[in-house]
Amino acid sequence: MRLVVLGGGESGVGTAILGKKKGYEVFVSDFGKIKENYKEVLNHNAIAWEEETHTESLILNADVVMKSPGIPDKSPIVKKLIENGIKVISEIEFAAPFTKAITIGITGSNGKTTTTMLTYHLLKSAGLNVGLGGNIGKSFAWQVADNDFDYYVLELSSFQLDGIINYKPHIAIITNISPDHLDRYDYKYENYIDSKFRITMNQTEEDYLIYDAEDEAIANWLTKNKTKATLIPFSLSPIFTEGAFIKDNKMEVKMMNHEEFSMETESIALEGKHNMKNAMAATSVAKLMQIRNATIRESLSNFQGVEHRLEKVLKIQNVQYINDSKATNVNASFFALDSMTTPTVWIVGGVDKGNDYNELMSLVHEKVKGIICLGVDNKKIIDAFGNVVDVMVEVDNMIDAVRMAQHMAEKGDTVLLSPACASFDLFENYEDRGRQFKQAVYNL
Length: 444
Hints:
By secondary structure, the chain is of the alpha/beta class. The chain has 17 helices and 20 strands. This is UDP-N-acetylmuramoylalanine--D-glutamate ligase.
C-alpha cells in the first residue's frame, strides 16, 4: 500500500511515521519548504520526501493520500487526485483505526482550544491515561505511533473534519459556530456549518454531542438535520433536565446517568461569559466519564488558560496589555471586546477572511477609544470604524503597533491585541504574532 502525505508539517510528518510503522510505502511531498527538524525525522525514519514541488508521477500512484489541513481542496494536485479516484483523507481519519483509545472531539469557530485544554486538564487531573492532539500540540497520528493512551482529547478544525469518512468521536463538542474561513467554503456560510457538523455524522446512539443551545447556527442545523448521538446542551440561561446551565451564579450540570455537579461561577479560574460556556462543555465531558466532583472543582479553579487567548501580559503605568492573537475571526474579537471593562486601544487587522465588522459596531462605540490597524490591507477596517473612533492609525509591524498603543493609552486603559483576522500577511502564524506582541510589550 502506498501512502502519499501532502504537507511536511506536524500532521504530515506524524502521519508518515505512523504509516511507515504500519507497513505502508510512504512518500511526503510539500509545495513549500519543510522545516529542518522535520527533515531530520523523515531521514531518520528512512521516509522519502520532496519540497517546493509536487511530482505528479510520485503522487498520483498513491493508494491513499493524507492531505494536511492547510492545503485547500481547490489546489491543483488535490483536484487531480480526486479526478483519478484516489482517496484523500485527513490525519484524523488515517490515524483513528490504529488506536483503540476513546476520543473526545472538539470543534467550533471559537473556544475550541480553551475547551480542549480544559477538558484535557480535567481528565489528566483525574488520573486518566490521556493524550492531547488534533489541531493543537503533537500530531494525533504521531502519538498513535509512539504512545498507548486510553483516551485522546482532540481539537478538530473544519479542515480536518472535511477529510473524515468513518471517524467518529465517542464524545463530540461543538462550542459555537460563526462565519470563519469562508474563503475555503466558496463564501457560503452553510457549507462551513455543514463542515463543523461532520463531527457527529458517524456517531451512534451510544455517543454524545455536547453543544451550545443558544447558538443560532447550531440550533438551526439541529432542527433541520438528525444525529443519532445523545444530545447534551449547555447555555447561560435556560434550565435543562439534562445538560449544563448557569443559575443563581452557579454552574449546574445534570446528566442522564444521575451525575450532577454544581460550582460557584466566581470560583472558576476562567473569566467571561464565553469561558463559562467552555467550562460547561468540558465539565459535561468529565461528568459523562464519571470523574469525581471534587477533582472537577479543583481543576476548574486552578486552570491557567491558553496562551494567546485573552492572555494578560503586563500592566505598565496602570495600562493592562492583553494578548488575544488567537482571535482570528470577528466572533472571537466580539468575545474579547465584550469582556473589556475599561477604555480600550484595539490592535486589529491581518488577512481578511470575508469578515463582516458590523456586529462589532456597538461594542466599538461603547468600549474602544482608538484603533491601530496592523495589516497589509486595512481598507475594510477603516471603512467600518473610521467614523466611530476618535483616533485610527495604520502600522505594518508589531513594534510600531505597541509603541503607538502606549502613546494612545492613558492610566486605567487596556491595550488589546485581538486581530479578528488571520496573521499570514506579516507573521508566520497567530503564535508568532502573539509572541511578537508580548516581546514588544516587555521592551516598552
